[in-house]
Every structure is written in C-alpha cells, then in structure tokens.
Amino acid sequence: MKTLKEMFDLNILSTILLYTSIISFIIAFNFSDNPPVSGWKQQFMPYLNNQYVSDITFIDSLLGFAVTYNDTPGDTGYVLKTTNSGNNWYIVFQNRADFNRVIFLNESTGFVCGGSGSGTEYLYKSTNAGKNWFLISTPNVITWNDMFIENEDTIWLANESGFDGGLFRTSNGGINWELKFFSTLYNPLKIYMYNSRIGYICESDYLFKTTNSGDNWILQPGKQAFRDIYFADSLLGWKSNSADLINDTLVKTTNGGLNWFNIDVPRSGAIYGGNISRFNGMRYFSHINKDTIWGSGGAISYPGNVYRAILFKSNNGGLNWLIQIPDTAFRFSGFFFNIFLNKNHGWAYQTNYKGIYTTTGGDSTFFTSIDEAVFSQPDNFILKQNYPNPFNPVTTIEYEITSKGFINLSVYNIQGKKQTELVNKIQNTGNYKVNLNGSNLPSGVYFYTMFVNGNRIQTKKMMLVK
C-alpha cells in the first residue's frame, strides 16, 4: 500500500506529465500543423469628428497619451489618455488647435505642441499626468511642427515657415527663448537631439547636424530629410528618409552621420496578387535596443482593392527583416505609428483611431519575404475569434470569403483529434457564421481550423466550460 507521501509525489508527477504533454501538443499543433493564436488585440479610440491622431506615446505598459489634429482651421484638438494599455481612451484636454506632438518625460510631466492654424502657436505643459495643462509662452509663429524635450528646463521647438519660423530653445522652462536656427529656405520641420550637444534638424529635403548645442548647424550632403530618427549612441543611428513621400527608405550610420547606407526592407511587385503598395517601405520605427527594431508603414494589396497592413521586425539592427501581418479580424490598411516598450509590450496605430496592442511580442508567425506573406493568405480569407469565448454550450464562429472556394471548418480537441466538421462545401464570396454546440463535448480547450481549397488559412483557440 502506498504511503500518503508516495501518493502525493505520484500526483505531482502525473500533473507535471499532463501539463508537459499539453504544452508539447500546443506547440506542435500551433507551429507544425496550424498557425498560432493571434498575439494582437484590437483597440479603438473615441471617434472625434474630422480629427486625426497625430502622435502617440506610452510611458509604461499601462499609461499612454495621444493628440489630434484636423483639416479645418480653428477646429478643436484633443489630448487623450489611457491608463489600461489603450483598451480605453478618454479626453483630458481640448483647445482650438492642431496638436502635432506629445512627449512625456515621466508619468507626471508632459508637453504638447501645435497651433491654431490661423497664426497662434501653443506649447502646453502638465505636471499631474494630464489632469491639468498650463500654457508656456513661446515666440510668435504660425504653429509648432515638432519639439524635443531634454528636460523640464531645456526645450526645443521647430517651425518650418520661411517667414517667422526657425528653431528655438529655452534653458529655463520657457521664461526666455533663443533662436538657434533660421533660414528663408530650410527652416526645420523635425528636430532630434541625441544629447545636449549633438542633434539633427530637417525640412522636407535637407538635413543639418550640430555638435555644439545648436550654435552651428552643418548641412549634410544630398537629400537626407527624415520622418523618424534614433541614435543608440553617438555613432550608431537609423532614420527613415522621406524625400520620396511614397517610397520611404530606412538608412543607417555607424560613424555619427558622416555616411548613411540604405537598409533593404522587404518590398515586391505583384506576386500572387499582392504587393507592398500605398506606403512602399518603412515610415516609422521603434527601437527596443540596438538590435531589435519594429517598423511600420507597409501594406500588402490584394485583388478587389483590399489592403492588409504589415509590420517589419529586425533582430540584428536592420541587417535582416521579418514581416508580420497582424492576425486581427479588422483589416488595417497601414499602420502609421508603432511603439514598443520592450520585447513584449507594443502598439501599432492608424491615424483614424484604430490600432492593435500586444503583450506577447506580436504573433509567433513571421515571414521572410512579401512572396511568402502573400502566398500564406490566399485571397485574404479571414477567420474570426468565436464568441462567446469561453462558452457553454453554444458558440458562434464567423469567417469571410473574398472569392469562391471549397471551405472546410473543423474542430479539434487538445490531442489534435477532429471532433466535428462545421463546414465542408463550396461557398461563394461573402460573410458567414456557424454555430458549434458543445453539449456532447467535455470541458476543455479546443481548436478550430479553416481550410480553403486544401490550404490551411488559420487556427483559433476556444474554451468550453461547463
């Protein structure tokens, strides 16, 4: 007869073996037989009439801010805040202005800049996490296109106007301002400071560099303007060139900007009906460290004027790139912003208040080329997450077909054994839904997989709880 300790040890061993088997199966099921469950969750900001999101920042995995602009001079601009990772956003400040940038130094202190569109510029500061905002007096310009905040005292403001624009700096929190750059031809649209001495400004074409805190600026050769720029140290840096507003390119320097060389980001012509179009390259990027980079701006087009936004990822400083098509039911036509705080927490947003969020570093599925990405999703069929989930005993599964084909939708248990076929026939283009009744199934984790013309499209996980 077994002792109590022997029985306890045996139960522990059995439990470990059971969970090891389950984990091993899930890994094999997801990566050998089926795509993994999506690592992205959709998010929505409140719709604010004709406003567009102009900038987003996250201080940590929960706290974030966004600002808006509009196409109508004198209309209202907004500052929005989230305290739950972007799942909910609410307005904390509004004014008759276009807000172009938002920067927070920490969870309490932040700045927004912009202008009214009719000749009134704004720089606001908050010291209580956006609850209250006060206006900082600045030189009179039409608007502030960009800013860089070194600390609460040292602030840089850029305006591209050739008449009253230029680059201004304060070293006492806005009490006094000093003009650091002015030209009737090349006033700055963007500003980036690596440290208090070394920095870069650009207008629509040309790039300037300073090594003495803005006292002198040196014009860099060629058209080197940037949309986004980042330096890991004084020598190693990246920027997305914007001289061509459609075909943005990513470039890299290893000698402090003396020389820049192009980085090959995946792009392609029409392959299996798809290609990177609209934004043909990388517009914005986010650095986790000197090796790991996420980029946004590309989209794959499919027949019927259908677009799927893509994200780029490099694990070796841009030498090689992987492509991800975020697995969400909503079709995103192209991500404008992407923010990654670390290897797990990241966001990608359009300018129309719609975005996605991950706590797992995105999907597990990456592609090495546009060819592979397009081929993996024939005609852009979409399998949605069942609802409700968990369920008891009935749940609904929806899917979308963009061209006629033979559809198979089957349900598998945790051991990979097929439990039932929900659909197994030819179907025309359209949106479909089917119910699964789990009355005769035991509680547990199940997977449902969609095949089109024999090609596996996607697998989703669901849970039956009785």
Overview of this structure, please?
39% of the residues are buried. The protein has 466 residues and is mainly β. It has helices at residues 4-33, 370-375, and strands at residues 41-44, 52-58, 64-69, 77-82, 90-95, 98-104, 110-115, 121-126, 134-135, 146-149, 155-159, 166-170, 178-181, 190-193, 199-202, 207-210, 218-219, 226-231, 237-241, 249-253, 261-263, 275-276, 284-287, 293-302, 306-314, 322-324, 337-340, 346-349, 354-358, 382-383, 394-401, 405-412, 418-427, 430-437, 444-452, 455-464. Mean pLDDT is 82; it is low at 1-37 and 268-280.
Overall mean pLDDT:
82
Strand content is 35-45%
Sketch the major β-sheet.
5 strands, antiparallel
- The CATH homologous superfamily of the largest domain: YVTN repeat-like/Quinoprotein amine dehydrogenase
Q: CATH first level of the largest domain: which class? A: Mainly Beta
Low-confidence stretches: 1-37, 268-280
Secondary structure class reads mainly beta
CATH fold naming of the largest domain:
Methylamine Dehydrogenase, Chain H
- The tally of structural domains comes to 3
Q: What is the tally of helical segments?
A: 2
Shape: elongated
How far apart, in Å, are the first and last alpha carbons?
Answer: 36 Å
Radius of gyration: 26 Å
**Architecture of the largest domain, according to CATH?**
7 Propeller
Helix content: under 10%
Could you tell me the number of beta strands?
36
